[in-house]
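Handoff note, outgoing to incoming analyst
You'll be picking up this chain. Sequence as last confirmed:
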Amino acid sequence: MKKLILSVTIGALAVALLNGSTLLAQQKAKLYAGLSNSKGYVVGAKLSPSGLHVFEGDTTWRLIGWKHPRISAVAFDPNDHNMIYLAGGNGCLKSKDGGKSWKITTNWEVTESQSICVDPNAPQNVYISTAYGIWRSKDYGETWNASNNGLPKKYTQLVTADHRKAGRLFAATEGGIFVTTNGGDSWQLAGAKGIESHDIQQSVKNPQIWIAGTETKGVFHSQDNGKTWQEIGGNASESPIYAVAIDPFNTQNMAAAGWNSGVLISRDGGKSWKNYREGLPVDDFYSITFDANEPGHLWVATIEEGIFRSADFGKSWEFKGMYGSLVFDLVFY
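Most recent structure output, in case you need it:
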């Protein structure tokens, strides 16, 4: 179903949440969104600019850098806040000065980019997932080579790094969840064999805990650092799940959202899930994340109806702008 409406990324949020958590003692993390303004488009109509935005309070978002028709994901160098990487429809965009200037570092072979990831323990290594496989850079995104050895199907929605071990990454692919322990030299099946996967997140507080969202089997869960994966079942498996999240303050709190799903919340580590729909204009979502600054706060990006925030785990929602946008990634840093 997802490919029929639009192939999108949900972002590399585990690393971003880790960075946001690390910054708590120093300063509040900022919320970034990669998006396209699309609703009501007709030829010649004036739309708000698409591209990378940062939240400035209330319902205000500020464009950073180029106007770009599709920014699928954003990632930061953990050692240099001014080093920003974007996954765009035309490849990798890189800024070394906090978004003031940009350059495209990939060639024509890297297209339809879905996500981008910086290995936090080896930040010179950057990964980008595309509709045609995974590409890897070993020099801070300057040059790229294909990294698909072991992947039976190349379409990859997301690639994300284990924030405790350099060179260990997971990929959400059309053929399941795959893992590499050698920085992308080779990939092996980790779970959800043959099931199209969309998002994978690692707990900031407990790196043993991972969750993943899939097209046909809902949410998968791992409690042994991704070595084995189990389907959660229940109402968390009734809809295609495009985005999952784990609370950086409490590993028992989890969230998931997708197509016709509502917002699914678990307060017991994934054992049971409750569906929250009241106060939201639609049941369709591309991105969801817990707040890196405020415990219990949750952000969700609807499909073209705006970004919403809840301060009570989904019981009530407040509109936070970006009406008419397809928000592919929400990242705290």
